[in-house]
From TrEMBL, chain A:
InterPro entries referenced in this protein's UniProt entry, alphabetically: Cell_cycle_FtsW-rel_CS (IPR018365), FtsW/RodA (IPR001182)
Biological source species: Wenyingzhuangia gilva
Transmembrane segments: 12-34, 54-71, 78-97, 142-161, 168-199, 205-224, 236-257, 330-351, 363-390, 396-415
Superkingdom of the organism of origin: Bacteria
Name this polypeptide is given: Cell wall polymerase
One Pfam short name: FTSW_RODA_SPOVE
Keywords, comma-separated and alphabetical: Cell shape, Membrane, Transmembrane, Transmembrane helix
Localization annotation: Membrane
Membrane topology summary: Multi-pass membrane protein
NCBIfam families: RodA_shape (NF037961)
From TrEMBL, chain B:
Record keywords, A-Z: Carboxypeptidase, Cell inner membrane, Cell membrane, Cell shape, Cell wall biogenesis/degradation, Hydrolase, Membrane, Peptidoglycan synthesis, Protease, Transmembrane, Transmembrane helix
Topology of the protein relative to the lipid bilayer: Single-pass membrane protein
Molecular function as annotated in GO: serine-type D-Ala-D-Ala carboxypeptidase activity
Keyword Transmembrane helix belongs to the record: yes
UniProt xrefs under SUPFAM superfamilies: beta-lactamase/transpeptidase-like, Penicillin binding protein dimerisation domain
Protein name: Penicillin-binding protein 2
Organism listed in the record: Wenyingzhuangia gilva
Length: 425, 629
């Protein structure tokens, strides 16, 4: 295949590219709506956010084309180095990083800042693909579990220390990838259960949660014995043991939270879980965001006609809360369409990933889907008031060069890998 | 492996479904079709308030007007350095006032306007208006206040108040701090008087800065001015009634029988309506509302329920005729009273003084014979098989006169009074063995029955009309056009036939000819009336304190084609003939002739009669009781 001028174009998955283009263009229109003001009507005014975003978009196209021209085997060969480079960039922040809004997450180059967090995702997915692609890799040996864990924990810790815990949460999403690649489902179940119990204990208090756990167990037992007609005699010790462990876990969560944590830690969790009535600050964001979306109705108020958007009522509306602009100006049909577009986009990536011949490409594709899914899930759920406030961007919509480039890289490396399978081998 | 690859797509689809459902819930189920109210925080409403309507009396005399005053307001953060000496001399204030007021305004809010100087005189306003542009941060706000050229009729006119949080929540038209009628006709006809405020919608950003009109002003409206109303009240009669009632407690209600229009609604003591306006308003209202001894805010014409006393005998007689238990010629003997049982106490005394001959209905009314009406009551309560059934019929007749009912007049306050029912007595006497003897006090308008002065006046209007009445009301015209409200133009028929009224009216006529009101006859006017004297005492801890009787009088005139019907109630005024009867004659003459000259001596006497000493005695008894407890 080398030195053969092979035409790449027919092998590219144009559907993904098409959705990508629609999303970034529509995203830009909404950034314009959310950030324009009466005084700046010039579209190519580079002192404004929407003007800058045009530059970022132009540069992402350049990056995308550049990535398509790199040899696909490069990614597999250099995955570890790319990962290391990303980790060094993250670590370097502690030396020369620039603090914006309380987090040291940026490198400042002149008037221009870059956020390595956004690129670390790509590096991590590549590293994971590389590791899991090793011959006869299995999650069974303990050492493999540790290796995988280290790969995702290092960036997560570095990002948490910036501190930017919201962005660090993305690394949790890879559990879906591990499950796909053979991680025992018990770990997924126990992990989910641990999170659910942790959150519910903080919200409802340990007495209720322990009582609830017992009741649910009782219902399951009743179901098994009466409906499924199984004899339970021999599993009693197991059940009592599990209940004891669960109760112990619940109580220790309670104890840790109330007696070991300091108040500032508790505050952070309380705000995260919506337990604190901080309406002036974070509660205010969610309240305004929900009102803004609800005011859109079915057809929306029309582009640039959203009075709440134009009045700039929702804080961070061109970044984390960009979805509320869509909700107000484009209404139900517009915002539902965006949700459907994103979901189709992720399903398309999953579909392509499943069809990869190379395991590396499949794992990479799955990782990409994990990252996009997690971002859309957390961001949209936060804006429509289903999740507590966690500040992470909506891919392709939120204003910001680093995140746009990061997502573009993540996507186009996959498009390249996917295209390559069709003419390589 | 295949199964495992299904989890992720499934999660994606479920998430998409939840998101779309949530958006559907927010944007379609929860969407408020009234866009303006929903986006309230982005849109600022700016109101223009119309002038409130004027109020006139039935003859076109102005009762309520508006007065423009000017407040100087200040927004502390917008104040720039200025010539304080000139400013102080313009406003006639000293520098100390300026500094303290500015500090106070800043403490309240540096960004919001506070009142700097309220109610500027017109001259000061004229000078200031030309120079206000030099003083950045200061502005003049025009304010409209209610003004009352006369001191009368405060109880009818009512007052306006600032809208409180509760009303603002209940009624979306109002916002906190706006003005709303809270009592009297200001409340009853609020919608007519206030007009409709104009509104313009401005778009603003999160810093509250207005950034332009909302949707080019398509939702903006102009204010609709309030409409003027005329009342049925005759200002002269009202003021005269208030004068006659000075230093007394009680009420006068005068009604035009053939329309139901209320000519005068006097309550005493009352207050000057101007007290409820202006700078001293809050101080005055506290003083008025906290006066629990004189209760000037209580409208005794509408809200005070008393035993009706002898005037009640009029309906008693009418019911007797209607139920055919008596004829106009039926005669009863009076033996200085009426014995209804064997015990010594089972005796109702009578002061009619006619012995040795039978008393008929006309004479019974003229002389207010207790025995006569006790006999009628006995016959009425024994007419049907049971006392219960008989009393039910009796009460039904009474209700047809509007007794024991709010009547439906157009003022926002009132009391129902009380007409006992058979159920009521069954509860009081659980063995249900009660008879006419048990409730004999009803025969002469005492006992359980209580009525308000307006109910009595309405009852007299029905008698004057020989059998019907119109719902009493105070509204006559809106913007000069006579009102046509079905409620006020519908005849309300009583259960008594027209022919039965004549003997009763003749009896009332005799009251003036040779009865208890003979001394206050008026030449050329045939007045029909009835005195009442209600015994009155406080009984507590077994001790009975005798108080002066309540003085009552009801009347209408002229006898044929009546023009005025009225009820007068003077608390602790003594005999009906000494205070209430002269007031009735004076009022009737005043209304029918325009002046009242024929009873000059009585006029002076009534005006100068003060019952304060009696009220003080009453108060001291009440205080005594309190200290004993």
């Amino acid at each position: 295949m080398r030195n053969h001028r092979i035409n790449l174009l027919p092998h590219i998955d144009w559907l993904l590219v098409f959705i990508y283009i629609i999303l970034i263009c529509f995203g830009w229109m909404n950034i314009y709506a959310a950030s324009s003001s009466e005084n700046h009507q010039e579209i190519l005014d580079f002192s404004t956010r929407y003007g800058k975003q045009i530059i970022w978009m132009g540069l992402s196209v350049v990056i995308a084309i550049f990535l398509l021209f790199i040899e696909s085997s490069f990614y597999e060969k250099f995955a570890a180095y790319i990962y290391l480079a990303c980790m060094l960039l993250l670590a370097g922040l502690f030396l020369v990083g620039k603090n914006i809004n309380g987090a040291t997450s940026w490198y400042a180059i002149g008037s221009f800042s870059i956020q390595p967090t956004e690129f670390a995702k790509t590096g991590t997915v590549l590293a994971l693909a590389r590791l899991l692609n090793e011959r006869q890799f299995s999650f069974k040996p303990f050492i493999n579990k540790v290796k995988t864990f280290v790969i995702i924990t290092v960036p997560a810790i570095l990002i948490t220390l910036q501190p930017d815990p919201g962005s660090a949460l993305v690394y949790v999403s890879f559990i879906l990838l591990f499950y796909r690649e053979g991680l025992h489902s018990n770990i997924l179940i126990i992990g989910t259960l641990a999170i659910v119990l942790f959150v519910t204990t903080l919200v409802f208090g340990y007495v209720y949660v322990i009582a609830g756990a017992c009741i649910i167990t009782a219902i399951i037992l009743w179901y098994i014995s009466k409906v499924r007609k199984k004899i339970l005699r021999f599993v009693w010790p197991k059940i009592i043991g599990i209940l004891t462990i669960v109760s112990g876990y619940i109580y220790s969560v309670y104890f840790l939270f109330h007696y070991v944590f300091q108040q500032r830690h508790r505050d952070r969790f309380n705000i995260l879980l919506g337990l604190s009535n901080d309406t002036s600050d974070i509660g205010y964001n969610t309240y305004q965001s929900i009102k803004t979306i609800a005011s859109g109705g079915f057809w929306g108020k029309g582009y640039l006609q959203g009075d709440r958007t134009q009045g700039k009522f929702v804080p961070e509306q061109d970044t984390d809360y960009i979805f509320s602009t869509i909700g107000e100006e484009w209404g139900f049909w517009g915002s539902a369409l965006v949700v459907i577009l994103f979901m189709s986009f992720i399903l398309r990536i999953l579909f392509l990933a499943e069809n990869q011949k190379s395991k590396f490409s499949r794992i990479y594709g799955y990782g990409v889907a994990c990252v996009f899914f997690f971002h859309v899930l957390i961001n949209v759920a936060m804006v429509i008031g289903l999740f507590p406030t966690i500040g992470i961007p909506l891919p392709f919509f939120s204003y910001g060069g680093s995140s746009l480039w990061g997502f573009t890289m993540l996507l186009f490396i996959f498009i390249k890998l996917d295209a390559a399978k069709k003419y390589e081998l | 492996m295949k199964k495992r690859s299904l989890l992720f797509p499934l999660l994606v689809i479920i998430t998409g479904f939840i998101f779309v459902a949530r958006l559907f819930f927010l944007q379609i189920v929860h969407h408020d079709s009234n866009e303006i109210s929903l986006s309230g925080s982005a849109i600022k409403r700016i109101y223009t308030y119309p002038e409130r309507g004027f109020v006139y009396d039935r003859n076109g005399k102005l009762l309520v007007a508006n007065e423009q005053t000017y407040d100087v307001k200040v927004i502390p953060n917008e104040v720039k350095a200025f010539d304080t000496i000139e400013f102080c001399s313009l406003l006639k204030i000293d520098k100390k006032y300026l500094i303290t007021k500015l500090d106070r305004a800043r403490n309240y809010s540096p960004w919001l306007p506070s009142v700097f100087l309220s109610q500027l005189s017109k001259e000061d306003y004229a000078y200031l208006q030309e120079k206000i542009h030099k003083y950045k941060g200061f502005s003049i706000q025009r304010k409209s206040l209610r003004k009352y050229p006369h001191k009368s009729a405060a109880n009818i006119l009512g007052y306006i108040n600032e809208v409180n949080e509760y009303l603002a929540k209940k009624n979306p038209y109002y916002e906190q701090g706006e003005l709303v009628g809270t009592q009297g006709i200001e409340k009853e006809y609020e919608d007519i008087l206030r007009g409709t405020k104009g509104v313009s919608y401005k778009l603003r950003n999160r810093l509250n800065k207005v950034i332009g009109p909302y949707k080019e002003g398509i939702y903006d409206t102009l204010p609709q001015p309030g409409e003027d109303i005329s009342l049925t009240i005759d200002l002269d009669l009202q003021a005269y009634g208030e004068l006659l009632m000075s230093n007394k407690r009680g009420g006068i209600v005068a009604i035009e029988p053939n329309t139901g229009e209320i000519l005068a609604l006097v309550t005493a003591p009352s207050y000057d309506p101007n007290l409820m306006v202006g700078r001293e308003r809050s101080k005055n209202s506290v003083m008025l509302f906290n006066d629990s001894i004189n209760k000037p805010m209580l409208d005794r014409g509408l809200q005070a329920a008393y035993a009706p006393g002898s005037p009640f005998k009029l309906v008693e007689g009418l019911i007797g005729l209607q139920e055919n238990v008596i004829t106009p010629n039926t005669g009863f003997y009076c033996h200085h009273g009426y014995r209804y049982g064997n015990k010594a106490t089972n005796f109702m005394g009578c002061h009619c003084g006619i012995t040795g001959r039978a008393i008929d209905l006309r004479l019974g009314i003229a002389k207010s014979c207790n025995s006569y009406f006790s006999n009628v009551y006995k016959l009425l309560l024994e007419k049907y098989d049971t006392s219960q059934e008989s009393l039910t019929h009796w009460a039904e007749h009474l209700r047809s006169f509007g007794l024991g009912d709010f009547l439906g007049y157009d003022l926002p306050i009132g009391t129902k009074g009380f007409i006992p029912s058979a159920d009521y007595y069954d509860k009081v006497y659980p063995r249900k063995t009660w008879r006419y003897t048990t409730t004999i006090s009803n025969a002469i308008g005492q006992g359980e029955i209580v009525t308000t002065p307006i109910q009595l006046a309405n009852m007299i209007a029905a008698i004057a009309n020989r059998g019907y009445y119109f719902t009493p009301h105070v509204l006559k015209k809106i913007n000069g056009n006579p009102i046509d409200i079905e409620k006020f133009t519908t005849k309300k028929q009583t259960t008594i036939d027209a022919k039965n009224f004549e003997p009763v009216i003749e009896g009332m006529f005799d009251v003036y000819q040779n009865g208890t009101a003979k001394h206050v006859q008026i030449k050329d006017i045939d007045i029909c009336g009835k005195t009442g004297t209600v015994q009155n005492y406080i009984r507590k801890n077994g001790v009975k304190y005798e108080l002066a009787d309540h003085s009552i009088f009801v009347a209408f005139a002229p006898k044929d084609n009546p023009k005025i019907a009225l009820a007068i109630f003077v608390e602790n005024g003594g005999f009906g003939s000494t205070i209430a009867a002269p007031i009735a004659s004076l009022m009737i003459e005043k209304y029918l002739k325009g002046t009242s000259t024929s009873l000059k001596w009585w006029e002076d006497r009534i005006i100068n009669t003060s019952l304060e000493a009696e009220y003080k005695k009453q108060l001291s008894i009440q205080l005594l009781e309190k200290s004993q407890n």
